[in-house]
Every structure is written in C-alpha cells, then in structure tokens.
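> forwarded from #structure-qc
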C-alpha cells in the first residue's frame, strides 16, 4: 500500500500507541422541550477547610467549672448555717420574755380650766425571763407611752439593766405628761365619776432596745415592742386603782 492509501485510513484504536483524544467535544442537544444545556464554565472558587479553635472551648469549660464551684460553695454554706441554727435553737431553746402590769397608781391627775390635763402615773411592771441559758440586756434608749384611744397622756422610761436567765424582775415606771383633754376622754371621765363605774380603757406601749446573751457572747441588738391594753376602774389621785382586764402583745423588729 502506498503513502496516499495510508493517509486516508483511520487510526487503529487497538494499537500500542497512546489513545487518540479529540480536540472538540460534542454537547448533546436539548430534549426538544425548550430546555437549554448549561454550558457555563465551572466555578474556580475553592472551599477552604475550616479549623475550629480549641481555645474558645477551653475558656467556656473553665467558666462553667467556676460557676459550678461557686454554687457548690454557696450550697455548702447554706447547709452549714442551717445546721448551726438548728443546733443553737435546740440547745438554747429561746423563749420570749413576758411583761405584766402588776399595779397602776395615779399620783397626779390635774385638769386645768383651759382643759389642759397634767398627769403622773406610777406603773409597776413584772418582767420575766423564762430562758434557761439566755440573758437579756435592756438598753437605756427606751420609751414608755400611756394613751387613751390614741390620745397620749404621758411618757416615761424603764431602767437599763441586765436580766439573768430564769429571772423575774419587778420595776416601777413613772409616767408624766400634759395634753389637751379630748371630748371622748372627758365623757368617759364624767360618766366614771358620776358613779356609773364605766371602765376606763388605757394603752401602754413599750419600745426598748435589747440584746440576747448566749453564755459570754452578745448577739446583735434589736428593738423589742410591747403593747399592753388594759382597763382600770378609776383615775382618781391617791386612790386604789383596780385593773379590770388586760391583754398583751409582744413583737420585735431588727
């Protein structure tokens, strides 16, 4: 076979030489429904791999551990405080002191023509500390007020003292004052002095700073409040006064 015949013959695909690569690629046509073949070149952007930093994870873990430790310490302190409170309450068995008006005397009850009232009462108080292991310190900045239906008749003070445990103390409080005689109080006095023997209601408020002593330790100070409502048969000076009824309320404020 001559040279011209060899030029027109196709290349043998099974030959030992390298495979034949066409210069052009034939793209398939549409499917006949108007679809177009996307011939855009592929994107040349690369997806850069992301590496998560372990530093943020470590800092978050440390913060969580700190919070857990704080909560554990707080819970432990609460448990210790509650246990100590229960122990102290069980050991000392604290009880509120009691107050009783034993006697009520009228040293002066002077009504002036201008309806100014000058009074001096002598109140005998019984103060009892029922605690076995707790002492009570009564402060000097205290106040005793005697009133009738909101009208203050006089004021006084109780002496400052230390009351030991299982102790009963009797004290006398002088109450003095001057006020304008109200119409309600005047009507009550008139009815009482006319022989109708109508009880005269009075109210005595005691406000005293107080400290409890547990052994040799003095606790913080708080204010003790006593409200005593009682009724007497008369308010005549130098006469025996009988207490017909009485009611006591005790509270305290920090």
């Amino acid at each position: 076979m001559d040279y011209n015949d060899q030029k027109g013959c196709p290349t043998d695909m099974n030959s030992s030489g390298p495979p034949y690569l066409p210069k052009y690629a034939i793209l398939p046509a549409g499917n006949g429904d108007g679809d177009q073949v996307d011939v855009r070149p592929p994107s040349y952007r690369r997806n850069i791999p992301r590496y998560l930093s372990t530093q943020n994870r470590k800092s978050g873990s440390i913060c969580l551990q700190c919070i857990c430790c704080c909560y554990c310490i707080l819970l432990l302190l609460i448990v210790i405080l509650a246990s100590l409170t229960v122990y102290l309450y069980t050991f000392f068995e604290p009880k509120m002191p009691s107050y009783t008006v034993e006697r009520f005397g009228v040293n002066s009850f002077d009504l002036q023509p201008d309806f100014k009232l000058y009074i001096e009462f002598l109140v005998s108080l019984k103060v009892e500390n029922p605690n076995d292991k707790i002492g009570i310190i009564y402060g000097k900045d205290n106040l005793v007020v005697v009133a009738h239906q909101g009208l203050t008749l006089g004021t006084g003070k109780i002496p400052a003292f230390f009351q030991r445990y299982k102790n009963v103390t009797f004290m006398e409080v002088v109450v003095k004052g001057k006020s304008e005689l109200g119409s309600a109080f005047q009507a009550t006095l008139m009815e009482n002095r006319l022989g109708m023997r109508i009880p005269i209601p009075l109210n005595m408020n005691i406000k005293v700073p107080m400290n409890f002593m547990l052994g040799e330790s003095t606790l913080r100070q708080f204010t003790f409040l006593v409200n005593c409502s009682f009724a007497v048969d008369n308010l005549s000076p130098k006469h025996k006064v009988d207490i017909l009824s009485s009611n006591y309320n005790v509270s305290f404020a920090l």
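QC bot note: Residues 99-253 form a domain with the Immunoglobulin-like fold (CATH 2.60.40). The longest strand covers residues 200-214.
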